[in-house]
């Protein structure tokens, strides 16, 4: 058994891209068709060159045809000629990261704007600091892992039993219960398929990235062996 083949695969991912060997991505800008994204999304702004450089470095370091079976190419900021890109990155100064597969449904955009997009940014750390750059780097890999088809590994039941991040997982479950989000998260896993055994080192495992931050600050998490194997084994 290949124990590194482990992951949570999103069923929608199968229909996302026609050519996984060349998934074209641009950064939302005010100069072209992507301008509406900047006004719809709270705190969204045109991205800085430094932000774009870190995202591109993170993704090209971690995803390519031979290692993950999916190859991204970046065409810079979106302009009028990039209307047919496969995905859009939106810079959000307040940080965090979200990946939406269907922008039309969420934001009421016209059908031609139906494409996945990633909303992310540097968060509360001041831009340019190492902590901020590391945050952007790992968030980019996490979000592009979602874009590639991987769901949240910590939502698996086995995550509760992992000794490395047990306390963090329990804390997260407690918070989710307080805010009443647990039901919707559980429901969202209906569209996901579990493969292999639990991978505690997945980039999509909240408790592992939090564990790394607590025990080895400055270590930038990358795609795990399990993540790469999962992506390679997805048959599209
Ligand atoms: Zn996530």
Structure commentary:
This protein is an alpha/beta fold and 236 residues long. It is 37% helix and 15% strand. The chain has helices spanning 35-40, 49-62, 65-68, 103-107, 130-148, 166-179, 182-188, 206-215, 225-233; strands spanning 7-10, 23-27, 44-45, 72-77, 87-92, 97-100, 117-120, 192-195. Strands 2, 3, 4, 5, 6 and 7 form a six-stranded mixed β-sheet that branches. It has a two-stranded antiparallel ribbon with strand order 1-8. Helix 2 (49-62) crosses helix 5 (130-148) and helix 6 packs across helix 8. The longest helix has 19 residues, at 130-148. The two termini are 22 Å apart. The structure holds zinc ion (ZN). Zinc ion (ZN) binds at residues 142, 146, 152, 204.
Secondary structure topology:
Elements: E1 7-10, E2 23-27, H1 35-40, E3 44-45, H2 49-62, H3 65-68, E4 72-77, E5 87-92, E6 97-100, H4 103-107, E7 117-120, H5 130-148, H6 166-179, H7 182-188, E8 192-195, H8 206-215, H9 225-233
Helix pairs in contact: 2-5, 6-8
The chain binds zinc ion.
- Can you tell me the residue ranges where pLDDT is under 50 for at least 5 consecutive residues? 160-168, 175-188
* Architecture (CATH level 2) name of the largest domain: 3-Layer(aba) Sandwich
Number of helices: 9
Number of strands: 8
CATH fold category name of the largest domain:
Collagenase (Catalytic Domain)
CATH superfamily of the largest domain: Collagenase (Catalytic Domain)
Percent range for helical residues? 25-40%
Shape: globular
- Please write the string of helix (H) and strand (E) elements: EEHEHHEEEHEHHHEHH
Overall number of structural domains: 2
Question: What is the straight-line distance between the termini?
Answer: 22 Å
> Are any ligands bound, and if so which?
zinc ion
Task: Give the CATH class of the largest domain.
Answer: Alpha Beta
